[in-house]
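User: What would this chain look like folded?
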Amino acid sequence: MLGLSLYAPFRLAGAALALGLAAPFAAAEDALVTPPPTLDAAPASSTQTVVLAGGCFWGVQGVFQHTVGVVDAISGYAGGSKATADYRSVSTGTTGHAESVEVKFDPTKISYGRLLQIFFSVVHDPTKLNRQGPDIGTQYRSAIFTTSDEQTEIANAYIAEINNTHVFRKPIVTKVGRLDAFYPAEAYHQNYLTLHPTQLYISENDLPKIENLKKLFADHYTDKPTLVNAGKLTN
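Assistant: Here's the prediction, encoded as structure tokens.
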């Protein structure tokens, strides 16, 4: 998913290998485990929602689909208008959208704070501005789109806390703001990691994230992903 849709929907990496060329991107980076947040959400019994952006939504969705307590993880777009909430438009980097994942979770099984810990530790490198792995552009920015004032407060406090611990060599660039709207991505983007595990982009950039989740957050890892019924999605 290189910037300006060079990876969409067919990836240059496969063509490069077929020609005997080096893959045009590096493997996923090692995970850096952040400390658990001091502040977390108040106990709740109903399903909660947060929208997270951390690079290509294939990997973000894949990680949370393998996270215990996540009820649904849908790839989509947030930060722009409905008129430009499509892959071709978003890939130009001019729509204001970020490739995002709507994460619905059961707070009796996993807390909001633990989701954020996984997001910062496993999903992506939150110190990179408008890029992740081989992908470059504002559509690949790091962002947390919250659905309550409490979520906003916790996310901001956690970012400050992580920065103070100096886990990362650079400051976190993740932007936190209230969610205006979320638009599900096209059906062929849903469950992409599960459906295409041997694709070079997935195997090099995203499967290592699943392994890191399994290794570092074993208590919240499930081998069976929670998949999206892509046929019922509407934008």
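Residues 149-165 form the longest helix (17 residues). If you want, I can go into more detail on any region.
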